[in-house]
Amino acid sequence: MRSVGHFIGGKEVKGTSGRTADIFEPMTGDVQAKVALASRAELRAAVENAKAAQPAWAATNPQRRARVMMKFVELVQRDYDQLAELLAREHGKTVPDAKGDIQRGLEVAEFACGIPHLMKGEYTEGAGPGIDIYSMRQPLGVVAGITPFNFPAMIPMWKFAPAIACGNAFILKPSERDPGVPMRLAELMIEAGLPAGILNVVNGDKEAVDAILEDPDIMAIGFVGSSPIAQYIYERAAAHGKRCQCFGGAKNHAIIMPDADLDQAVDALIGAGYGSAGERCMAVSVAVPVGKTTADRLMEKLIPRVESLKIGTSIDPSADFGPLVTREAVEKVKGYIDIGIKEGATLAVDGRGFKMQGYENGFYLGGSLFDNVTKDMRIYKEEIFGPVLSVVRAKDYAEALALPSEHDYGNGVAIFTRDGDAARDFAAKVNVGMVGINVPIPVPIAYYTFGGWKKSGFGDLNQHGPDSIRFYTKTKTVTSRWPSGVKEGAEFSIPLMK
Ligand code: NAD
């Protein structure tokens, strides 16, 4: 059986803790590999390695660092098909969707190729008599990323590409459920010319995460995962004096106004609600039709579409979506469907009974659709993270606007309308971090920033785009005066730029 170790000092090394976790192949339900779970000592060894390598990398001029990133982009494109298949077989999502996972990460590596420009500081000549001021951005040193199972290529690249381009060394702790692609990405960075020790992959669970949180040489942590863990990481990292940004779970609403193009909205809801079996932090999990007529017409169109979703293996090119990541994930989602029924929601389509012929042990679930969900229900308040769409009927626009605004989560939201005025008002007022107007999954492009609000994001800077350069650097500001500018004696009050 394949075994996955760690990637430390520029090569894969075996785990020594004696602890491992199973990596499943969700489409068959088989265990396909074992991944090593790092001990504190293994994490520490990776940090020491990174710390030793980092100063020389920081001293490498930014154009050379950018060239490594350019080569990495080329190598990922070369290996695109193999990476996508490996990803699909470990995660469960379909191969075309796995390609999207890789592509949206690679776009951030492309963004990081602009590092010579992105890291430029500021300069003011003559800020006072004979005084010039300038600022510079310097890397933090060793930084870490802790990432979730659902985007095993994209989110690691969102983290390590800008961090490394800035001159940091990076410790990646990917999800233990699908570590294969992160390990391959580290190999490709070495092939692209990255010095050994600058990108390390330490596989593991809570033990490795706690070691990262307490390590005195890790200066910053970028986390993505569920909200309770995001909050835990945020609090513990702060307690240890680390810079930290933590992105959590979601409950993304799509508002369907009476004037919306209903066919376009239904297409959007089906793709965004059920793509990747609903295991996306930007999946639409709540549809909010405005007015009874809109709601009735929407349900009439949605039901047959959900009933005819094509569930297939991860390597079936015609499948709409594949299996979920684990059997526990399937049981958890089924549990929420039971809860929804008990809470009084109308289960319009029930995906619980779905069986995949020839793959009876795989982690499959059909698409489910709830109508008449209300805001006091657990299936509305909590993240289900599966192929389940809940319809909450709103009587008017004000009620529809209030639903996502008052929800605990605030990752993404969308409005479907032909009315520019309503769309503009919605974008201005909704209390959510990322907004789509007739766009169901408004994941900002790499040179903008990604981040949710409320329980979906802890910390003040977003991922990728200009915020990522700020997050992975510290600013130093220099005020200088040369002897020819020194005219007066000692000053005892606070200096003013007179
Ligand atoms: P998770 O919180 O279970 O795990 C995320 C990471 O934390 C993993 O690396 C895992 O090993 C580690 N971890 C898990 N339990 C831990 C514990 N008790 N102590 C310390 N570390 C622990 O999340 P997941 O199931 O891998 O991913 C799905 C979640 O991620 C969903 O909630 C989804 O909405 C969220 N997500 C958010 C975004 C975003 O940008 N906001 C993006 C993708 C996924």
UniProtKB/TrEMBL annotation:
Task: Note the superkingdom of the native organism.
Answer: Bacteria
Q: Which residues form the Aldehyde dehydrogenase domain?
A: 15-478
Q: Does the keyword Magnesium apply?
A: no
Instruction: Name the InterPro entries for this protein.
Output: Ald_DH/histidinol_DH (IPR016161), Ald_DH_C (IPR016163), Ald_DH_CS_CYS (IPR016160), Ald_DH_N (IPR016162), Aldehyde_DH_dom (IPR015590), MeMal-semiAld_DH (IPR010061)
EC number per UniProt: 1.2.1.27
Report the CDD domains cross-referenced here. ALDH_F6_MMSDH (cd07085)
The answer to whether UniProt assigns keyword Lipid biosynthesis to this entry is: no
UniProt keywords, alphabetically = NAD, Oxidoreductase
User: How is this protein named in the record?
Assistant: methylmalonate-semialdehyde dehydrogenase (CoA acylating)
Q: Which organism is it from?
A: Bradyrhizobium ontarionense
Organism taxonomic ancestry: Bacteria, Pseudomonadati, Pseudomonadota, Alphaproteobacteria, Hyphomicrobiales
